[in-house]
Amino acid sequence: MPDDASLSADGRSLLSWAIVALFLLNCLNYIDRLLFSVAQEMIKVDLHLSDFQLGLIGGPAFAILYTVFSFPIARAADRGRRVGIIAISLTLWSAMTAFCGIAANFVQMLVGRAAVSIGEAGCTPASHSLISDAFPAQRRTTAIAIFAVAGPFGAIVAAVGGGALIAAYGWRTAFLICGMAGIVMALLFRATVTEPPRSQPRSHHAASFIDTVRQLLARRSFALVAVAGGVAGIGSYANQQYMVSFLMRGHGLSLANASALMGLVIGGVGIVFTLLGGPMMDLGARRYPRIKAWLPSFGLLWCGALYAAAFQIPTVGLAVALMVLGSMGQHFYMPAMYAHGQDVAPPHMRAMASAVIIATSSILGYGLGPPLIGLASDILGESARVSAGLSLAECAKQAVAACEAASAQGLRLSLSLGSCFFILAAGLFALASRWVVADVHDHDRH
Predict the structure, then answer these.
(1) How far apart are the first and last CA of the chain?
(2) Cα(43)–Cα(115) distance, integer angstroms
(3) How far apart are CA 102 and CA 166, in angstroms?
(4) Could you tell me which InterPro entries the record lists for this protein (predicted)?
């Protein structure tokens, strides 16, 4: 791992391009991931889906294979050439994004999104491992924050650009265009990014998969932070999946306007506060090492309370304002979570550390968040419909305003309930702060 003083001008230039390239491919990662959320109201109508089916496509269909494949790909990244692994992963998920553009039914879309997840499983672990070997420890959280801020930046592109593209040309064209753009980026990345040397030689007697995971989870702060990230993900990924639908159903906005506001809440705020969070924690940790747990804890407590209120506000302006304020607190936890994994993991386990965090985030966040909130929305919406004295036949035959109001009410209540998971995650981050310093020092001794 280089230090700042040892880098030549050419070395700094190569590092700069590497982080830019990783930023761009992570943008595509989130664009392809969020495009479904932006388009889902149109997809729901075209493919005749329920909120629960939308949740299955956006949740378990993505989470299960994403988790399963993240471990062997991370294992390969800890031993092989990460640049090639990342390029192959990007090619696969981009091709499958294009396939989603021709899906004709629920099963085909489910299979397409599951295949996207296999490709995306290779992005983050290999990228974190590459960043950790390319940047010195005192700049690592900032570098990971730059990589992570591609998420909210990609959310803006998916929401604003994707929303406009879908409104103008339809959701199928949008999926095809995004898929082709990713294939071009994969070729560029493979041709221009250089594999950095590893921090230490690869061992010929590498620990087994189970032993590696056991060693990582033995660090209590790592285990708690990983679970906290997953619990926060339940609320985060549910909001990501249903925010456009909420604004369209609950406040009567058009797709273009709803997706633009989603871009502001998730993307615009996320860029600023993810970028602020990394340097703040790097600087603060020099005097207060526990800040990497306390700042995410405070932020999640803040966002949980504000999101819960936002989904119940009847006026769109105030609701969006509260979501923006809530989003400010939400974006501290992700760079802190991944950076802590890199801080406590030995160099030959860094990709696996990211994979463990991804697994908990995927299984808990993606796996439970969208389908749980979608199912709650269907149940609560059905309850509101029955209370209004409306039959399914009446709702099916014509767009009855009361039926739409019942559906909107179900989604409002389910999203407010989902905000409680942010508060639970805040408690887990606070608990993890007890062992943050000891676990980092234990890693440094070894």
Answers:
(1) 16
(2) 18
(3) 14
(4) MFS, MFS_dom, MFS_spinster-like, MFS_trans_sf
In 3D space, the residue among 254, 378, 267, 224 whose CA is nearest the CA of residue 316 turns out to be: 254
Helix (H, G, I), strand (E, B) or coil at 203: coil
Which sign, positive or negative, has the C-alpha torsion 86, 211, 360, 446?
negative
Are 353 and 221 within 8 A, CB to CB?
Answer: no
Q: What Rg value do the Cα atoms of the chain yield, rounded?
A: 21
Q: Which amino acid is at 355?
A: A
283 residue type, one letter: L
pLDDT digits 0-9 by tens, 209-230: 788 888 888 888 889 999 999 9
CB atoms within 10 A of CB 164: 15
pLDDT of 419-432, one tens digit each? 999 999 999 999 99
pTM surpassing 0.70? Answer: yes
Q: What is the DSSP letter of 76?
A: H
Beta strands of 353-403 (E only): which ranges? none
CA 409 to CA 24: how far, in whole Å? 38
User: Letter for the amino acid at 321?
Assistant: A
